Amino acid sequence: MKSILFKATDRGTTDYGWLKPNYYFSFAQYHDNTKVHFGLLRVLNDDFIAGGGAFSTHPHDNMEIVTIPFTGAIKHKDSTGGEGIIKAGDIQIMSAGSGVQHSEANASATDSATLFQIWVFPKERNIKPRYGQKTFDVTERANKWQTVVSPIDADNALWINQDARFSLTNLQAGAALNYSNAFKNNGVFLVVINGSVEVNGQPLNKRDALGISETEHFTVKASEDAELLAIEIPMN
Predict the structure, then answer these.
(1) Is 73 in contact with 87 (CB distance < 8 Å)?
(2) Using H for helix, E for strand and C for coil, what is the string for the chain?
(3) Contacts of residue 176, Cβ cutoff 8 Å, sequence gap at least 6
(4) Which one of 92, 98, 125, 229 has the largest count of C-beta atoms within 10 Å of its C-beta?
(5) Which domains are seen in the chain, by residue range?
(6) Of 89, 74, 100, nearest to 134 (Cα)?
(7) How far is 82 from 133, CA to CA, in rounded Å?
(8) pLDDT in tens, the chain (236 residues)
(9) CA-based Rg of the chain, rounded to a whole angstrom?
């Protein structure tokens, strides 16, 4: 097993006033030659959006864009006709494909919102753009993986144009949980949303991440109650 540690304290950051992002990978004004991507995972931004904050209409193409909100609510609208409001427990995906225009805004004028926005390179380029969102029962991820994004129909998840899989778990202190790849030779970018865990002797705390490759499975053990995101991704 090969692993790369991404400490929360080493992330890039910018303060736009209404938007305070933390970057796991090079993005916007932040650039680190050692942190450009992990396999086909290109972007993972940990965003704080103040009440009334908004990204005005802007374009994307040939990227799979996943949004995972934690607090507050986010309003989305795009040129495919897709629109909706997402909050904690919801997941949103947009396959930008051949090209799409979209906007995102804090649905509240006063309350802040926090989220992960994640970009994955697509498997097939220039597909017809598509939008999807789904509410998941968070009780179904207690001490087990709940797959929320996947191209596998049996996963009952949002579809992604890539051999990638996003899974969430809420792990109790002292519990151990195995992860096994759905796709051979994929890597996993494991993010500790909250709490602390250990993987193969490596301690990870809140917002730390570990890029895991050259193994088909690994075990994570919770040092305290923890919330985790596993992004399984092709490495090339």
Answers:
(1) yes
(2) CEEEEECHHHCEECCCCCEEEEECCCECCECCCCCCCECCEEEEEEEEECCCCEEEEEEECCCEEEEEEEECEEEEEECCCCEEEEECCEEEEEECCCCEEEEEEECCCCCCEEEEEEEECCCCCCCCCEEEEEECCHHHHECCCEEEECCCHHHCCECCCCCCEEEEEEECCCCEEEEECCCCCCEEEEEEEECCEEECCEEECCCCEEEEECCCEEEEEECCCEEEEEEEECCC
(3) 219, 220, 221, 222
(4) 92
(5) 11-135 (2.60.120.10), 138-233 (2.60.120.10)
(6) 89
(7) 9
(8) 999 999 999 999 999 999 999 999 999 999 999 999 999 999 999 999 999 999 999 999 999 999 999 999 999 999 988 889 999 999 999 999 999 999 999 999 999 999 999 999 999 999 999 999 999 999 999 999 999 999 999 999 999 999 999 999 999 999 999 999 999 999 999 999 999 999 999 999 999 999 999 999 999 999 999 999 999 999 99
(9) 17
- Look at the block and give the residue holding tokens 């053990």: 221
Query: Please, are residues 47 and 21 in contact by the beta-carbon 8 Å criterion?
Result: yes
